[in-house]
């Protein structure tokens, strides 16, 4: 699943559509019912950890937030090739939405008749105060702007099938957003815990250090989103390597300076990663999925996780990240 920096990038992409009205929807999501977003205004977007939140408000209450947004009825220009043509279809005489041919999906058409399987009450923002759309991304989750994801290779049957977006939002300004491989649900407000978000200015180091100091392997604690929201497997491996800490080291046996260094590396690596994303650069990893560490040592790889919990592939260098025996709670070699 995309880690904090990737979701921040998605947030940045979505931000440019804030203040615009949804003029057309598409996507394969059955749970969400993309139709329910029709004519709503995207009013805000937030990112918390690995989750993205979009706030939608109905027309009558808020209206256009500014006067420099094109009217929602205005057909899209240029940005989407299929836009102008589908626009007519989408807002056709019956007002019924039709499928978007560009999406190659049979799941797009959601009957709108009174007896049809409309969205369940309470599952749309119109019915209540639940106006925040919460988006959680799967392993290959992504957000695309003004273009659709294309198949990068053929599937097992040899078909070149493009991924099907879960949700497509066309905006009055002419652009569109496509959300892939994600789960969406409505909520009343984002569960805001910036103190846990490794990329938030409000990230609370003290709280993080306290969590890491528990008598359990640090590689388990790092992935605990209650303390390190946004931290995923790549950041875990890289921060541990850079801090010179063995993934199975018990937090309670590490010196305070060692734990400090680990938190420093978590924040530094994540921030650099985010910056690289904005500059279109690929994040440089030193240990994740490597055969050798930068010092040339053979790297170990093993699936590690709490008993009965999710085991995540973990890479570490036995030289640069030595396992401490319980008797020597000394700081590690690299820090
Ligand atoms: Zn090494």
TrEMBL record:
Domain Formamidopyrimidine-DNA glycosylase catalytic residues, every copy: 2-186
Leader sequence segment: none
Basic and acidic residues bias (residue ranges): 74-88
Descriptive protein name: Endonuclease 8-like 2
UniProt cross-references to SMART domains, sorted A to Z: H2TH (SM01232)
Region of interest (Disordered), residue spans: 57-98
Protein species of origin: Daubentonia madagascariensis
Domain FPG-type positions: 286-322
Function noted in UniProt: Involved in base excision repair of DNA damaged by oxidation or by mutagenic agents. Has DNA glycosylase activity towards 5-hydroxyuracil and other oxidized derivatives of cytosine with a preference for mismatched double-stranded DNA (DNA bubbles). Has low or no DNA glycosylase activity towards thymine glycol, 2-hydroxyadenine, hypoxanthine and 8-oxoguanine. Has AP (apurinic/apyrimidinic) lyase activity and introduces nicks in the DNA strand. Cleaves the DNA backbone by beta-delta elimination to generate a single-strand break at the site of the removed base with both 3'- and 5'-phosphates.
Keywords linked to the UniProt accession: Acetylation, DNA damage, DNA repair, DNA-binding, Glycosidase, Hydrolase, Lyase, Metal-binding, Multifunctional enzyme, Nucleus, Phosphoprotein, Zinc, Zinc-finger
Quaternary data: Binds EP300.
Main localization of the protein described in the UniProt heading: nucleus
Domain of life: Eukaryota
GO cellular component: nucleus
Any one GO BP annotation for this protein: DNA repair
Single GO term (MF): DNA binding
Subcellular locations according to the entry: Nucleus
EC number assigned by the record: 4.2.99.18
């Amino acid at each position: 699943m995309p880690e904090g920096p990737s979701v921040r990038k998605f947030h940045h992409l979505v931000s440019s559509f804030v203040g615009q009205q949804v003029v057309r929807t598409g996507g394969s999501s059955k749970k969400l019912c993309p139709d329910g977003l029709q004519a709503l205004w995207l009013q805000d977007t937030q990112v918390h950890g690995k989750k993205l939140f979009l706030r939608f408000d109905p027309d009558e209450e808020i209206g256009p937030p500014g006067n420099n947004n094109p009217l929602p009825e205005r057909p899209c220009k240029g940005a989407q090739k299929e836009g102008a043509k589908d626009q007519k279809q989408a807002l056709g005489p019956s007002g019924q939405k039709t499928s978007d041919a560009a999406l190659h999906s049979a799941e797009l058409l959601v009957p709108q008749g009174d007896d049809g399987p409309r969205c369940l009450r309470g599952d749309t923002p119109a019915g209540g105060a639940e106006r925040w759309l919460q988006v959680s991304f799967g392993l290959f989750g992504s957000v695309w702007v003004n273009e659709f994801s294309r198949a990068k290779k053929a599937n097992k049957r040899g078909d070149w099938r493009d991924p099907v977006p879960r949700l497509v939002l066309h905006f009055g300004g002419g652009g569109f957003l496509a959300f892939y491989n994600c789960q969406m649900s409505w909520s009343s407000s984002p569960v805001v815990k910036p103190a846990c978000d490794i990329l938030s200015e409000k990230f609370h180091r003290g709280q993080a250090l306290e969590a890491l100091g528990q008598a359990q392997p640090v590689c388990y604690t790092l992935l605990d989103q209650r303390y390190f929201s946004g931290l995923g497997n790549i950041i875990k491996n890289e921060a541990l390597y850079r801090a010179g800490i063995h993934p199975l080291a018990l937090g309670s046996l590490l010196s305070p300076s060692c734990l400090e260094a680990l938190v420093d590396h978590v924040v530094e690596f994540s921030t650099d990663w985010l910056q690289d994303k904005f500059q279109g650069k690929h994040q440089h990893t030193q240990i994740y999925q490597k055969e050798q560490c930068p010092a040339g040592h053979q790297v170990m790889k093993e699936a590690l996780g709490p008993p009965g919990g999710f085991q995540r592939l973990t890479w570490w260098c036995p030289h640069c990240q030595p396992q401490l025996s319980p008797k020597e709670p000394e700081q590690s070699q690299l820090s």
